[in-house]
Design a protein that fits this description.
The complex is a heterotrimer of chains A (396), B (187) and C (100).
Chain A (H helix, E strand, L loop, with lengths): L1 H9 L9 H39 L15 H11 L10 H16 L19 H22 L3 H32 L4 H6 L14 H17 L11 H4 L9 H26 L12 H29 L5 H29 L5 H35 L4
Helix pairs in contact in A: 2-3, 2-10, 2-11, 3-10, 4-5, 4-10, 5-6, 6-8, 6-12, 8-10, 8-12, 10-11
Chain B lengths: L2 H20 L3 H21 L3 H25 L13 H24 L17 H8 L4 H22 L10 H6 L9
Helix pairs in contact in B: 1-2, 2-3
Chain C lengths: L3 H21 L3 H26 L3 H31 L13
Classes of the chains: A mainly alpha (396), B mainly alpha (187), C mainly alpha (100).
Amino acid sequence: MQSWIDSLIAAGDFGKNPPRDLVYALFIFGLSAVVFLGVAFPFAGIVSWVERRVWARIQSRVGPNRVGPNGSLQWLADGLKHVFKEDIIPDEADARLFKLAPYVVVLGFVLPWAVMPFSSALILADLNVGILYFTAITALTVVGVLMAGWASDNKWSLIGGIRSAAQIVSYEIPAGMSIFPVVLITGTLSMQGIIRAQAWEPYHWFLFSNPFCFVAAIVLYMSALAEGNRTPFDLPEAESELVAGFATEYSGMRYLLFFFAEWGNMFIAGALITTLYLGGWQAPRLSSSPVVMNVLELLSFNVKVLFLVFTSMWVRATLPRVRIDQMMSLCWKFFVPVAFINLIGTALWVAIWPGGNPVAGYVMFALGLAIAVLFIRRVMYYLKRSRMEMYLHPTI
Amino acid sequence: MPLGVFIFLAALAVTSALGTVLQRNPVHCLLALVVTLLAIAVMFIGLGAVTVGFLQVIVYAGAIMVLFLFVIWLLNLQAELRTSPGYLALKALAGLLCAALVAELFTLLWHAPTAGGAQAAAPPGYGSIEKIATMLFSDYLISFEVTSVLLLAAIVGAMALARRAPAPQHASPQAAAADGPARPEGA
Amino acid sequence: MVPMSYFVGLSAVLFAIGVAGVLLRRNIIVIFMSIEIMLNAVNLAFVALGRRLGSMDGQVMVFFVMTVAAAEAAVGLAIIIAVFRNRETVNADQLNLMRW
């Protein structure tokens, strides 16, 4: 990237002796704009439509199907509608903080894209502390949510803000503890380094590298659901109790920004888990051309992430919301101890087999496959039975 | 770190630190404090202390800030009223003393041999998490272990202090009634 | 490149602002925040001078200072809550029971 810009400068595309820092800044800003406007925001929008369609299918409804083919432009219509709505700021609200809060939340959503490892070449910045950066940036979201909740001067907003902060701060501990096993195995915090330590075959993923990692991945997934305020942990915006939680007083574009961040965070959480446990962009070497390989890797990465995003929709459509005290005790009394056991167990595992145990991968993969097959058979059984019941009782 | 970036961050840090000290609403003070801490974290990263910089963001913006905010809300603190004019002389004196402190520190800095001059080239891996971990677990092992004991003590202490006093076991209903209903909970 | 003395100077200014906060404010929580500013000013000096000398001991010190700051915040805020329960105030001027 830098060498390419240097060659452009040398070729005189920017005039004679341009200020080098300025040209770099121009490229960085341009690239960020392309990534956010061209990838992150449309992704968040499209996911909102996909999510509504998936729920609808799971709940035997139709879902949005009017705008565009199969309703696929619904997100654009919703976005436009929100942009043109009046931006209301309550009289009693703390106007400065009220206006600023959505941008802080969105900051926590756009910054992780800087270290998103889409493929072996497609990454903006392969920081050697990538995972730490990821954790630090997601911690910033709390500030925005608390600002929104407090500045609205509304009890529901405030309770939503408090709940969200308590939830994010608590679940950061098991999430962080579930990241460390992989760091222990690879000895690096760089996203690319972690992915390069895995391979495209599932039994070389860290998910299956030892039993502790498998549990850690599940803990990480559930903590990510909680940190992203997703059902069954969507207490901060529990609509039956808190209207819309910290977003209650918001309208128009600012309201939209909160939900952009929420849907976008699904991708970010999925990308984190994919990078750490599911082999990231690793793809079989089908071709020697780097372009083809990068496309394959991009595909591999996105398929895994989108699968995780889909499961989060699936969970959201299936499970009821838990109570706040249940959620807190789940975190502190179950996830935190389990995460610590995972950490210590992985440390012991690495101490015993420094290069990793090769047999464990195959055994764990076989076990995982068996669990998946059993699960699918169970689902098929229930599907068949529900069809039969529908046949017997056509009114349900 | 380019000079322009430094000036921007320094101005941000100083203005928001002043905001912390001068604003009357504790929540505004806290948010200004967070901006100061983030500016300092970015400076750490610019100085090559990448790990410490990100830890600063996690610890301060993520944890300590939320702790402060919860306490502010728990105590339901409103914006302070202006202090009576009798304090004005004291405040002026305090301001004067702080100005003297700045002057003193700058004089010290002027004469310090290590502060100015060119910086040494950073060795490879400077500020990386491996280096810090190696130092923590070799040269600073005892301090590290003492810190963990300190944290444990802090957890226990915070729990013991903030817990509500348990309700008296043998208080008779008459005594409770004589106490009067107007006493606030936990008083 | 920014001379290290700029960083240390900034650290001095921030430290003085923290001291001013402790002296000027009457709200214990804000006094606490001012102490955090002072701790961070010192951290900045540690990191800057460590960079100047090409050593990482300053960063390890920052790590310890952060831990102490976290412990201090937890215990200090717990004390504030306990005081508030007893005296219904967080104004440092009204907490004068032990004053002669």
